[in-house]
Amino acid sequence: MIKIGIVDDHAIVRSGLRQFFSEHVDLRVAGEAASGREAIELVRTTELDVLVMDLSMPGQSGIDALAMIRAKAPDVGILILSGYPEEHYAMNLIRQGASGYLNKECDPMEIVNAIRTISLGRRYITPAVAELLARQLDRKDDAAPHEQLSEREFQVFLKLAKGETAGDIAKTLSLSVKTVSTYRTRLMEKMNLSSNSDLTYYALKNKLID
């Protein structure tokens, strides 16, 4: 029996996934969470094999929670189920420890196949993500600027692009304001941008935020 945790801020999505998983004899939903913070608590208190997690959630997002979940539960598989297409986030998140990445428009059976693969300790790589991996290997120097950011830089970049202040970011990520400013300086240099409005424009243009 594969024990699953569902993390999504929409109750109707969680309910739909729970209902769908109940139709498969080898799957059991062991717990649910509506935010990144709740997801961290879920893996701390519940025995899980695979966490199916959304990215966009109020407060602490899936991106913010990923590293902490990895630290607290290194053996739990993490399947990102997101409204964003693979090319926007998959590479960054797989590098940060996600076991797989699926777009919410995928065939529902693909989610089940991914869960079964991940529960065996393997990664689930879709053809689209495999293509991205191959392209990145072929053109290492030609990677998009945001793909060259570290995990923390990427988190800070997304929050700045959404208009959050250094103080807000520091609170959410449990960092000092000075550390956030250091990350901002570093990511600006790497991306060759000069202002927060440049960051927002870049993120919107590359469909990293809505």
Topology:
Elements: E1 2-7, H1 11-22, E2 27-33, H2 36-45, E3 50-53, H3 62-72, E4 77-82, H4 86-95, E5 100-103, H5 108-119, H6 127-138, H7 151-161, H8 166-173, H9 177-191, H10 196-205
Parallel strand pairs: 1-2, 1-3, 3-4, 4-5
Helix pairs in contact: 2-3, 4-6, 7-9, 7-10, 8-9
Please give a handful of descriptors for the protein shown:
Rossmann fold, 53% helix, 5-stranded parallel β-sheet, 13% strand, phosphoprotein, 2 domains, Arc Repressor Mutant, subunit A, 210 residues, alpha/beta, WalR-like, single chain
* Total individual domains: 2
Q: Tally the helices.
A: 10
According to CATH, the fold-level topology of the largest domain is: Rossmann fold
CATH class of the largest domain: Alpha Beta
Kindly state the percentage of residues in helix.
Answer: 40-55%
SSE string:
EHEHEHEHEHHHHHH
Descriptive notes:
There is one protein chain. It contains ten helices and five strands. By secondary structure, it is an alpha/beta fold. It has two domains: about 1-135, 3-Layer(aba) Sandwich (Rossmann fold), CATH 3.40.50; about 145-205, Winged helix-like DNA-binding domain superfamily/Winged helix DNA-binding domain (Arc Repressor Mutant, subunit A). A five-stranded parallel sheet has the order 2-1-3-4-5, with helices on both faces. Helix 2 (about 35-45) packs parallel to helix 3 (about 60-70), helix 4 (about 85-95) packs across helix 6 and helix 7 (about 150-160) packs across helix 10. The radius of gyration is 17 Å and the shape is globular. The N and C termini lie far apart (about 35 Å). InterPro entries: CheY-like_superfamily (IPR011006), NreC/VraR/RcsB-like_REC (IPR058245), Sig_transdc_resp-reg_C-effctor (IPR016032), Sig_transdc_resp-reg_receiver (IPR001789), Tscrpt_reg_LuxR_C (IPR000792), WalR-like (IPR039420). This is Response regulator. Keywords: DNA-binding, Phosphoprotein. It comes from Variovorax paradoxus.
